[in-house]
UniProtKB/TrEMBL annotation:
Membrane-spanning intervals of the chain: none
Residue ranges the record marks as coiled coil: none
Superkingdom of this protein's organism: Archaea
Protein name: HVO-A0261-like N-terminal domain-containing protein
Species of the source: Haloferax massiliensis
Amino acid sequence: MSSVDGTDDVPWDDVGFVISSHYRVSVLERLSEGPATPTQIATDSESAVAHVSRALQELRDRSLVELLVPEQRRKGRVYGITDDAENIWTVIQTQQMA
């Protein structure tokens, strides 16, 4: 299989997972700008907090998003993008998949 712009090492399964949901794309796009709470992400992406929370959990399950505060904390949970997700987001943008 040939490389597309040097993307032969890209985890295409994760790229497909992200782009198959508008909410996952919105969350990753927002977090690529910097850490944020679910409420901030929802406001910035004009999405319901419930959709953002579900997308965050799905992305966390794939280690694409990380919780930056202690797990026990219920209010003011701040999330950040992982290095893997940063690379995936770059591919999504350069390949114009979002």
